[in-house]
Structure formats: structure tokens, C-alpha cells
Write a structure and sequence with these properties.
This protein is 24% helix and 33% strand. Strand 10 and strand 11 form a beta hairpin.
Amino acid sequence: MLSLTIHKQLANFALDLALDAPSEKIIVLFGASGAGKSLTLAAIAGFSTPDAGRIAIGARVLFDSARGINLPPHARRIGMVRQDLALFPHLCAADNIAYGLQGTRAAKAKRVRELSALVQLENFGARKPAELSGGQQQRVALARALAIEPALLLLDEPFSALDLQTRITLRRELKALQRRLKTSILFVTHDLGEAALLADEMAVLDNGRILQFATPHEILRAPRTARVAQIVGVKNILPATIVDAQTLRVGEMNLRAETAPFAPGARVQMCVRPERVLLVRPDAVGARVNLIQGELVHEESDGNTIMLRFRADGARLQPTREFDLCIDMPLYVYERLNLARERRWRVSLKPNAIHLVAE
């Protein structure tokens, strides 16, 4: 288990977090730039000394301010891949991988061959970093970090500078490699899709603190606070009041929800992910819950997803805003429904899509 308690005060920022994470898993630190993710890795690796706290991998203590323990980076048995990779430009790929290895020349050469095969670089050992693609450079950096058989591997946004297809490939390879080696990995990213794909468990960081630590599924479906919901892409966060165990008042409307763990009269925040707002065809039959009539008033696209804005007729969820709900959907669904021309719709908010948090 990785056990962290870190207190670090900088001029305009304080890192103050605690985390107990299981071994042999991919743990993702997720949050916006400036949340404290990279500073956390630097403290674990020994490049930044906390003002107070304790860092341990299993029974092995790397830092303990109360006991005066602070192992130097080279004694921590931690591998690290940074965003800039820090490969030596004058060394070939094989020599970069071998850097830091101990033992005879034959033993090091054997280890380099094993690692090259592991990261699919068997035929590229003689090339300099400048002669490799971005993805191949990432594999060299990963092999070098694995060479020492680290107790923990730290990856600081390693794929952020790569094109989308290369990122997809390397994420898949990393996950397969971790499963094969059973390596403990702490992975930093501000890409929610990357975090959800890679993480066995995920820590949501904000302003130097961990707001929630759970599986990606749990965090995405049941964020602990409105701030966590905002960080993980919940675009519909609306103030509401509990009416009874299955009813809440949102703006000028009453909506049904699943059993709410709040007393009647409690002020809460209603969270609904944008991809869980359902458009209902005009000719659809059958009973629908939380059905709202209105129109699409705005849209944006990133080329793959359409982000729609929906405004209700009459009674409103958000009377003071220009729209009531954000809706995300794939471009092909947008085109199939002819939404560029058909602007009048009903939407349905299923009770199990509504998540409530304290105000």
C-alpha cells in the first residue's frame, strides 16, 4: 500500500493531502492544472521535501518528518516518467534504457533486451531520441523507469504532448503492461477520459487537497460534492429543495428522484451528467418521468460530440438563465435526429440520472 500524508506550504499554494492507495493498481491523480498533482509526485520521488508528513510504500518508510527520515531520490526505488521525458539526446535508445543499471555489461545488455521487447522497441535500440517518434520516445522513457524494478512507478502526464491515436495506443499498452507486471503506478492527468480509462481508483484533487478517492465509475456517477461534480464534467448542477423522499423542487418545477438521503426542506444541489439528459421523440409513446417540453437554443461541437443547450417552456429549472440544461451527444446521433432543423423537443430526466449532494 502507498500511504501518504503530505503538508507543503509554498508562497501562494498549500499542498495538504492524505491518501492510502492499494498496491499493484493504477492510481490516477486527476484535477486541473495547479491542483497539486505534480508537486505530490515530486514529494514522493524525493525531489521536493514536505514541511511535515509521512510517505511509505508498504512497510518501507521514505519520509517521516516526526522520525527524521528522508531518503534521497536514488534510494527510494521509484521510477518516474515526466512530461518532458528527460531522455539523453546523445545516447541511443538502448543506452538511455541502461542508464542507472548496475552490474556487468552482459547483465545490463540482457536487461535492456528484455525491456526493449517489453515495450516493443526490439529494433530501435541503436537510434537516438531525435530519430524516434513521440510514442517510441515514451516507450524508451517507460523502459528506463522500469529498469530498476521500482516499487512504485510515477507517470506525470506522460502522453499529453502526443497525438490522439498515439495516446490511445499507449494507454492500452500501459494498462496491459501493468496487468502483466503487477506494477504499482501513480498516474497524473487532467484528461478525464484518460483518467477513467486507466484508473483502478482515482483521486480528485483541487487546490492541494483530495476531495474524493474511489473508482472512476463511483466518482462519475456519484460525486461527493458539487465541486467534485464540476471537476469531473457534470454540467448540470442546479440548486434544489427536498419536498419529500422522492420529490425535489428545482426552480419552478417539481421532479421525481430516487430516495433522497435528505430531510424535507433541505437545500441541496441536483447533479445530472449532460450525456444522461434524454431527448424524447415527438411520436414516442409510453409514460415518461420528469418530462420537460422546450427547445434547443444553442449548440457547439468539437467534431465528435455535440454540446446542446435546452430551454424549457413555461415553468423553468433555471428561471434566471438563458437555458435550463446542457445535453451532450455523439455527432452521429445529432445528425440522425436532424437536430440542426428540428429544434422543438421534450427531454426526460430519469430519476436514476439525478444525483443529490449537500448544498
